Amino acid sequence: xxxxxxxxxxRNNWSLDEIKAIYYKPVLExxxxxxxxxxxxxxxGEVQVCTLLSVKTGGCPEDCSYCPQAARFHTDxxxxxxxxxxQVLTAAQRARDGGSTRFCMGxxxxxxxxxxxxxxxxxxxxxxxxxxxxxxxxLGMVNEYQAEKLKEAGLYAYNHNLDTSEENYSNIITTRxxxxxxxxxxxxxxxxxxxxxxxIIGLGETDEDRIGMLHTLSTMVQHPESVPVNALVPxxxxxxxxxxxxxxxEMVRMIATARILMPKTMVxxxxxxxxxxxxxxxxxxxxxxxxxxxxxxxxTTPNPDFDQxxxxxxxxxxxxxxxxxxxxxxxxx
Length: 333
Known about the structure:
Elements: H1 16-23, H2 27-41, E1 46-56, H3 85-97, E2 102-107, H4 116-130, E3 134-138, H5 144-153, E4 157-159, H6 169-172, H7 178-190, E5 194-196, E6 199-201, H8 207-218, E7 226-231, H9 248-261, E8 266-269, H10 278-286, E9 291-293, E10 297-298, E11 301-302, H11 306-316, E12 319-320
Parallel strand pairs: 1-2, 1-9, 1-12, 2-3, 3-4, 4-5, 6-7, 7-8, 8-9
Antiparallel strand pairs: 10-11
Helix pairs in contact: 1-8, 2-9, 3-4, 5-7, 9-10
């Protein structure tokens, strides 16, 4: 890479030392470099607007330390069964009217099971797709057959986050392995579905863990089309309820490094945005973020609403990205 990010090709052979050298740059220098890479590979001023709906909340058998939906933790999350198709399509229509172009449905499942609930989700995917929205799901682990069924129903993207580095993973989750997550991503990719995979900072991890997670993502044969960067929202009743809040500079450093490593990827400013000022969010956009979730909730945690984001877009001169704009990433040899 030449100075200020004038890359000539996409790479998936980043070494840990190379990523460390980028990550630890002085933050203003890092922002400038990421902004240059962003300008080279992305439409500047264009931001993807997504909405996330919990279609089945709570009662999850997993032990993800950050998650208020785990059945074993005592939180204020109210368990509800799978929403009806009518409820989901009403929410999707409202999201589209509010300016969203991608609609993501999340279910608090460990894995997808071949049952009536999965059939209902497939019908939801078809219905949302008919509204002209990119449809995304996050349903836990899926096998190859289930990924193919989702693709046939019209699913555009599947979210399955790595959460943290492989080395730190067992400190956060013990009910599934890191390889389980990678296997689901492979199954989604084989089905021809766009991959959405990122992680969470503020879990008690080190900078080395953050670098390790970015290394895993950026050395995949095909970079994820979307990489959400989440700041932990500590929830009372979870093991991580007393974790200190992540600073905006930590978010900026993660976003900028992700942008430089994966120039064509949508880097999503995700959980934790609700407590950021417009100025702080502008720094994240400058550093290479070009996707957000909008709407009052992210599954169960607070999030800026449509009107707030519309005002921010007008102030910063941002434009919503259109649905189904080509996002395909080349396979790198």
